[in-house]
């Protein structure tokens, strides 16, 4: 168990995790950019997480302090490398809370951590969690994935409470791919509903998306059974059906005819699936991912949404 937890990144998810760590009885430092740190320290609120008051016991800092016993790194995937370089963790275990694939390198989150901070033991936190609900203390479960069983147990003991249940998983590759692919598939699910294609179509798409994820995880060296857990099926279900999902909302807007650029510009937060789609395909290599490819093609402007849907529906018939 770790008594002092540092959370790097004061977006909605980072703030929610800081509150959860405090709820679990830990000393907590929340690291934010200077302007945001000053505002949060005074108001004890965060515009990224409206309606939530930060407990008085959480310290807010504008730079990396003594890292404490455990660091939760909560930067968006495409900013993870720069964030790690800026704050330079040394020796302390780092739980990466990013989901996606780095565009420039096709690296997964823990691979980026290993390159920038090779002396920091790493784990991934992933699962079906909306930040606002975690901040409120509503019941939820998530996964801590790491090869080191002792590290998994330590993180779970540090963050768990009666309403937040953490499961260990020894397949960080599968957990990371689940977190990356589900955002891309959620964009497709949102587009289906936005275009008025109905719930039958969404259910079919999510199910086939799960099959894509299973193929991908098995091909890249993860475990197929991970796909059926919280970091796979659980996260996929939430992101493809929950109205709070930014990825679903982005796809829904595309389905209603809005353009990619204007929809991204109007988003209240980072749409990780839009940033991840192309890199996920590159990481997949020859693995067949028709839904993820359709999303990547629409975002890149290689085809229209109508053309992508037609391509999916006209694929050759085969046994499931």
Overview of this structure, please?
With 320 residues, the protein is an alpha/beta fold. It has 2 domains: 4-170, NAD(P)-binding Rossmann-like Domain (Rossmann fold), CATH 3.40.50.720; 173-313, N-(1-d-carboxylethyl)-l-norvaline Dehydrogenase, domain 2 (Orthogonal Bundle). 51% of the residues lie in helices and 12% in strands. The chain has helices spanning 12-23, 34-43, 80-87, 109-116, 131-136, 149-159, 172-194, 199-220, 230-241, 246-255, 260-266, 272-284, 290-300, 305-313, and strands spanning 4-8, 27-31, 58-61, 70-73, 94-96, 122-126, 140-145, 164-169. An 8-stranded mixed β-sheet has the order 3-2-1-4-5-6-7-8, sandwiched between helices. The radius of gyration is 19 Å and the shape is globular. The termini are far apart.
Topology:
Blueprint (H helix, E strand, L loop, with lengths): L3 E5 L3 H12 L3 E5 L2 H10 L14 E4 L8 E4 L6 H8 L6 E3 L12 H8 L5 E5 L4 H6 L3 E6 L3 H11 L4 E6 L2 H23 L4 H22 L9 H12 L4 H10 L4 H7 L5 H13 L5 H11 L4 H9 L7
- Secondary structure: number of strands: 8
Helix percent reads 40-55%
Total count of domains: 2
The name of the CATH topology of the largest domain is: Rossmann fold
Q: Describe the biggest sheet?
A: 8 strands, mixed
CATH H level, superfamily name of the largest domain: NAD(P)-binding Rossmann-like Domain
């Amino acid at each position: 168990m770790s008594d002092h937890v540092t959370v790097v990144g004061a977006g909605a998810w980072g703030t929610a995790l800081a509150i959860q760590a405090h709820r679990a009885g830990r000393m907590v430092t929340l690291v934010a950019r200077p302007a945001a740190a000053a505002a949060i320290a005074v108001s004890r609120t965060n515009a990224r997480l409206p309606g939530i008051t930060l407990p008085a016991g959480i310290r807010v800092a504008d730079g990396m302090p003594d890292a404490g016993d455990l660091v939760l790194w909560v930067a968006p995937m495409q900013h993870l490398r720069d964030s790690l370089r800026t704050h330079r963790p040394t020796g302390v275990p780092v739980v990466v809370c990013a989901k996606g694939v780095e565009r420039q390198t096709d690296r997964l989150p823990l691979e980026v951590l290993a390159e920038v901070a090779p002396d920091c033991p790493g784990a991934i936190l992933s699962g079906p969690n909306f930040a606002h609900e975690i901040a409120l203390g509503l019941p939820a479960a998530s996964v801590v994935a790491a090869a080191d069983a002792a590290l998994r147990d330590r993180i779970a003991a540090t963050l768990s409470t009666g309403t937040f249940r953490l499961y260990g998983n020894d397949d960080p590759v599968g957990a990371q791919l689940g977190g990356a692919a589900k955002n891309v598939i959620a964009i497709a699910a949102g587009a289906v509903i936005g275009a008025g294609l109905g719930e039958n179509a969404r259910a079919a798409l999510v199910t086939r998306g799960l099959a894509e994820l299973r193929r991908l995880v098995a091909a890249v060296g993860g475990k197929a059974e991970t796909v059926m857990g919280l970091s796979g099926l659980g996260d996929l279900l939430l992101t493809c059906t929950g109205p709070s999902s930014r990825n679903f909302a982005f796809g829904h807007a595309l389905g209603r005819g809005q353009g990619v650029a204007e929809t991204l510009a109007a988003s209240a937060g980072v749409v990780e699936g839009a940033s991840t789609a192309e890199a996920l395909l590159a990481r997949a290599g020859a693995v067949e991912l028709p839904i993820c490819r359709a999303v990547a093609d629409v975002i890149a402007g290689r085809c229209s949404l109508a053309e992508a849907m037609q391509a999916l529906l006209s694929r050759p018939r085969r046994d499931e």
